[in-house]
Specification:
The structure is a homodimer. By secondary structure, chain A is α/β, with parallel strands linked by helices. Chain A contains twelve helices and eight strands. An eight-stranded mixed beta sheet of chain A has the order 3-4-2-5-1-6-7-8, with helices on both faces. In chain A, strand 3 and strand 4 form a beta hairpin. In chain A, helix 1 crosses helix 12 and helix 5 runs parallel beside helix 6. The interface between A and B is medium-sized, with 27 and 27 residues. The structure holds adenosine-5'-triphosphate (2 copies) and magnesium ion (MG) (2 copies). One magnesium ion binds next to helix 1 of chain A.
């Protein structure tokens, strides 16, 4: 089956969507079919790829209510790049499913029925640790954590890993944290370098543990801040269509290559 | 009574906390007592001011469960700068209060009992439109929207204003949107300039309406990206303590002066 990777971080605006879209696009460009699952009611990944609420395609919301609707849900938005879109109504899912005993397993159930069409499934999670992110973590085998090399960003990592631990203990024992992708990186500052050093020391200290993040690494290179990455969503384009020679394109291409070079995941 | 201003934006990582802390600090430095209410379970404003979960002080969580606990809750963290701290347990409030008929009014009720001690009350909202933000909007008379001059940021503004409209219709008819504070601004790029032009055109188009944002403006100056603003939280300091000559300090001081120059709010 495909590698199934949840991109999560409960902190907002750290680069989850930008990272999911552009890693997916880079892998698709290299010829491997990729499914991007947009799990955020804000639907920014869908918007980024030119798909909004007016789309007729079955959405993640429909899938959570009825997993059997999955079969014609993915839409091919770019060559080899398929999207299971989100929509604003997805915000209602948490309340609507709150009494269902299988509410954390519905996405996994749906994806199992179609995943063999793809080499990668990338799940863009919302900035929270609620039902949608938990469905994403339960449907994945790996976790990538996009984050910024800043003090306040470090504060949230403990809670994030606690959630991964809970999911691996109670729902999904195969779940592993593959690593961290540093976004909007400003390597010039000592602040960023100190945060990187803190992260590397922490990951090193966890190597001999039994935790899901014992194999986690800092992916190289960090993604530099590059305005082109913020501009291309307004044209419904990935960075590779909009500015293929920009630093943002080079950085995400190298992260995608680092992922592809791994054998079967962390 | 004081000016009560909610700083809100459901999009994460846009600069709400940085803006609330540093505007509060600037006003406090000028001699006006300010109360900063940290409404985010992430408690980044509290952390920024050196107060974490180990603090014994009454928190916003305690206040939502029992508004009469407000009287000794605010702590003076810097001269004239008072904090009603958050804590991680605040994440439970939404569930715990979900059946209470007055659950959107508890913060307002508590603050009314102490607000005359202050010239300003600034409320730092979490990145969501749930119970905590709704308490913040109901307890305020004004809304400031920190946001980034980027395409994906524009997408969320409609939903944000819809929420303000709902609160003003159903809970708090005095609520007005005073305006927008642009954060992490990179004025060099045409992208940012286009977003600013879009925002100005939109605000202009709303002048003759009956909406709560008919008087909203773009505050000047935009806050430039400045690494010092991201560094000072790790020392429990405001920008004025950490780097008083930095561009970030100058920009937030000017925003505070713009606010102080207004008479009794929007
Ligand atoms: N390397 C970068 N350089 C410049 N801008 C970037 C970069 N990465 C992301 N951005 C911009 O920063 C903003 C936040 O990024 P993004 O939407 O990917 O974060 P997110 O974690 O998915 O946010 P949310 O928590 O709201 O889902 C967007 O406007 C995006 O275009
Ligand atoms: N002008 C700026 N220049 C550089 N860094 C900034 C600036 N403003 C904010 N930051 C940094 O960006 C990150 C996000 O800012 P902040 O925490 O204020 O956003 P927020 O909207 O409160 O986030 P959340 O939605 O999580 O509450 C923080 O690490 C902060 O230090
Ligand atoms: Mg996102
Ligand atoms: Mg904040």
């Amino acid at each position: 089956g495909p590698r199934r990777i949840a991109l999560m971080n409960q902190k907002g605006g750290v680069g989850k969507t930008t990272t999911t879209v552009n890693i997916a696009a880079a892998i698709a460009e290299l010829g491997t079919p990729v499914l991007l699952v947009d799990l955020d009611p804000q639907a920014h990944a869908s918007l980024h790829l030119g798909v909004d609420d007016s789309s007729e395609a079955t959405s993640v919301y429909d899938i959570l209510l009825d997993p059997t609707e999955i079969f014609d849900a993915p839409i091919e938005v770019k060559p080899n790049l398929w999207l299971l879109r989100s929509e604003t109504d997805l915000a209602a899912a948490e309340t609507e499913l709150s009494q269902e005993t299988d509410r954390y397993a519905r996405l996994r159930e749906a994806l199992e029925a179609v995943e063999d069409r793809f080499g990668f499934v990338l799940l863009d999670c919302p900035p929270s640790l609620g039902l949608l992110t938990l469905n994403g973590l339960n449907a994945a085998q790996e976790v990538l954590i996009p984050m910024q090399a800043q003090f306040l960003a470090l504060q949230g990592v403990g809670k994030l890993l606690e959630t991964v631990q809970l999911v691996s203990q109670q729902l999904n024992p195969d779940l592993r944290v593959s690593g961290i992708v540093l976004c909007m990186f400003d390597g010039q500052t000592t602040h960023a370098q100190e945060v990187v050093a803190d992260l590397e020391a922490y990951l090193e200290s966890q190597r001999e543990t039994e935790t899901p993040w014992r194999g986690a690494k800092l992916y190289q290179p960090p993604i530099r801040r590059n305005i082109k990455l913020a501009e291309c969503p307004s044209f419904g384009q990935t960075i590779f269509e909009y500015a293929p020679w920009a630093p943002g394109a080079a950085d995400y291409r190298r992260i995608a290559e680092a992922l592809l070079a791994e054998h079967g995941g962390a």
